[in-house]
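Lecture 7 notes. Example A: sequence first, then its structure tokens.
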Amino acid sequence: MRDATTASVLASVRRLEAVAFRAWPAEQAIYDGSWLIRLAKGHPSKRLNSLNPLDPGDRRDIAGRLARAAERFAAIGRPLTVRLTPLAPPELHAHLEGEGWERFDESIVMSADLAQAATDGIDQLPLRDTRRFVEARLAISGEPDSLCEALVSILDSIRPETGLFLLQSGERPTAVTLGVLDGGLIGLEQVAVAQDLRGQGLGTAVVQAALRWGQLHGARQGWLAVGADNAPACALYRKLGFAEVYRYAYYRERKRP
């Protein structure tokens, strides 16, 4: 019998994975058993272009299923990327390691009880202009303007209620985040602060604004994913009451010399 603690953790992972998929939807979602293939031809996001195993017991025909998934990725001009969470079968992890796949970009999924979290920021009404939000996000992050249409399409395809939060200094965007309300949870996506203004409380302000909005609309728990190597952001979220739930990382085949 599975350990009760492990079962409880896996239940939390399953719930957060489900809301995360809805919060950041791919153009295509294809199932091979419990392995979910997510594809987005218009945007290079790893989360939108990855193979996501969702059952630790689904370990049949690993090599064959990877090969078939690789064909789907190749059809849109992308290499196969596998995203491993605690829901992935250990045998798949062992297979990738044994075949010399490269592990990269670990992320931490964190959550917070909003009754205990620091959500005492000022009330702020979210934007209704998706394009304005996306343009601000790209300006802050330094990502190319060519991603604008794809990002607008992604945000417009999110089915749960969303809140777009933007801080500005004059006409200059300084911080943004996207809040997604889903089943008593609010997820934070696209958090960004202008690089030369970091450490001045803007990240705290924009995150608190989104959490406060979520709480006022019935959210009881917040969640987010942050790069494991992003120490300042991890420290900020912990200060606001977030704690680690689980981690995930990506795998890709190593380039041959």
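Example B, a different protein, same format:
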Amino acid sequence: MPDSPLSASPYEVLGVPADADAAQLRLAYRRALRHAHPDTGGDAATFHAVQAAWELVGTPEARAAFDRGVRTTAPSDAPHDPFAPAAPRPRRDSRPLARSYGHPGGFSREQYLALIREWAGRGVTLDDPYDPALVRSAPRDIRHVLADALAEEETARALSTLGIAYTVWHDLATDAGGPGLPPKLDHLVLGPTGLIAIQSEDWGGPVALKRGELVGDALAGERPIRALAGRAKAVTRPAKVKPTALLVVVPDEHAAVPLEVGGTNRGAAVALARRSRLASAIRDGIPGSPQLGGVDSMEVRARLQATVRFA
């Protein structure tokens, strides 16, 4: 099961309350397995999700570990918060990284911490605001903010591998957030393949491109491409430059294909990408997005450096 604040818990996958006894849990597992099996009209993804849920809570030891927020695969069953800020990963090579500015996920994490403490109540001490049990019990809108932070951090890790020819800005301040939307642009990438505005997202469900906009039940009325275009314009207009592409990045399981391209918005190519496809999509160039020569890229970088602000 993916480590996402919006992922269904194993109890939700099996269709039982978290306090179900062992007999109820086993009965629910057998029933869910039978209904999800491809041979009985189910689908492979649901079948595998049921099996993964059972691995997490199917034995007393595994269930106790899951309820405590412990990964049984961690060394010595050490507590592991999948939602806490991750330590820097060791590098496997010495190739130069992309130049990077800003703090990816920082604004969203600050927002999450404020919301979770407000939701817990005045006077309540939260020893660990990223405790998995606490996160799972929070309202969806709070979990979504944390999911955004995690998505932005994962995107930043992928973008850092682009190489020295690319410059990346994270968490750029903008006044074009709109009602209920964060006042920032998640990422802006500049390189020989263009100037690409990126939104990192995890809506907890699949999305797809249709007529230049994202659609999907999990969006709940949002219009992400329109919002992304507004943020990108607000950030790039002071530098008198324009983005060449608008790209939304989602977890792999939430996009049907690795890279989906769907028309243009204000002259910028519109695309949806799986997270694992992000770096290669930018290196290859988003189809329909104009590329920049070396001189043009240096001029755009200088203009942006003089105007960008961070959230």
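Note on Example B: The CA atoms of residues 68 and 278 lie 34 Å apart. The domain at 10-77 is CATH 1.10.287.110 (Helix Hairpins).
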